[in-house]
C-alpha cells in the first residue's frame, strides 16, 4: 500500500470544497507548516486529479492568501511601530533572518513600495514578512493591496500550474511523490541560479570598475 500523506491531506481539504482551499491558503500565512510552493504544487496535483477545477483552485488560493496578507498588514498598523518591529524581528529569527537583513528589506520597501511589495510575494519567507513590513511603514493600503495581489496571483499561478503540468506529464498516482519531484527540481534550479548569480556579479562589478578607469 502506497503512503501518500499529501494526497490524504488534499483529499481532506477537497471534502470542504473551495472553502477548504481558501482556509488553508489563509492559515498558511500564519502557520507555515509546509513551504507555500510545496502546498501549491500539491493543490495543482489535486486539481489535475479532479479535486477542484483549475479556476476554482486559483481563485480560492489567491483570495485566501491575499486576505492573510491584508490581515497581517492591518495588525502591524494596529500594534504600532515598537510592538510590530519586535514581533517582526522575533518572526525573522524563527526563519534564521537577522535584524540587519530585515532592516535592509525595510529600506528597500521605503525606496520602492510597489515594486518591493510585488517582488516580496515571489520570495519564500520574505513573502510572509512583507505585509508586516508594509504595515510597520504605513504603506498606503490601496498601493499595498494592489501590488500584493499581483505578486500573490503570479506566485500561486506558477506553482499550481506546475503541479497540474507535472501530474499530467508524469504517470505517477502518488501526490506526495509528485510534489517531492517538483520540489527537488525547484531546489536544483535555485542552486543553479545562485551559482550563476555569484559568478556573474563579480564579473559585472569588475567590468564596471574597468570602464570607470
TrEMBL record:
The transmembrane segments are 6-27, 58-76, 144-165, 177-200
Membrane topology recorded in Swiss-Prot or TrEMBL: Multi-pass membrane protein
- Output the superkingdom of the source species: Bacteria
Q: Which residues form the VTT domain?
A: 34-163
**What Gene Ontology cellular component terms go with this record?**
plasma membrane
One Pfam family recorded for the sequence = VTT_dom
User: Could you tell me which InterPro entries the record lists for this protein?
Assistant: DedA_domain, VTT_dom
Q: Where in the cell is it found?
A: Cell membrane
Q: Which UniProt keywords apply?
A: Cell membrane, Membrane, Transmembrane, Transmembrane helix
* Keyword RNA-binding appears in the UniProt entry: no
Record's protein name: Membrane protein DedA with SNARE-associated domain
Q: What organism does the UniProt record list as the source?
A: Rhizobium azibense
Amino acid at each position: 500500500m502506497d503512503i501518500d500523506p499529501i494526497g490524504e491531506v488534499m483529499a481532506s481539504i477537497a471534502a470542504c470544497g473551495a472553502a477548504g482551499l481558501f482556509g488553508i491558503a489563509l492559515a498558511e500565512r500564519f502557520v507555515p507548516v509546509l513551504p507555500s510552493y510545496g502546498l501549491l504544487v500539491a493543490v495543482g496535483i489535486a486539481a489535475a486529479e479532479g479535486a477542484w477545477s483549475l479556476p476554482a483552485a486559483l481563485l480560492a488560493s489567491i483570495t485566501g492568501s491575499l486576505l492573510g496578507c491584508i490581515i497581517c498588514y492591518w495588525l502591524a498598523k494596529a500594534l504600532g511601530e515598537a510592538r510590530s518591529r519586535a514581533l517582526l524581528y522575533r518572526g525573522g529569527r524563527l526563519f534564521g533572518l537577522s535584524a540587519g537583513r530585515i532592516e535592509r528589506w525595510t529600506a528597500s520597501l521605503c525606496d520602492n513600495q510597489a515594486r518591493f511589495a510585488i517582488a516580496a510575494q515571489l520570495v519564500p519567507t520574505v513573502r510572509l514578512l512583507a505585509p508586516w513590513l508594509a504595515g510597520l511603514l504605513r504603506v498606503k493600503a490601496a498601493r499595498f493591496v494592489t501590488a500584493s495581489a499581483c505578486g500573490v496571483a503570479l506566485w500561486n499561478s506558477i506553482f499550481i500550474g506546475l503541479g497540474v503540468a507535472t501530474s499530467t506529464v508524469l504517470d505517477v498516482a502518488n501526490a506526495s511523490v509528485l510534489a517531492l519531484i517538483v520540489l527537488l527540481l525547484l531546489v536544483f534550479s535555485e542552486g543553479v541560479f545562485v551559482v550563476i548569480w555569484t559568478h556573474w556579479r563579480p564579473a559585472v562589478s569588475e567590468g564596471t570598475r574597468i570602464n570607470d578607469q
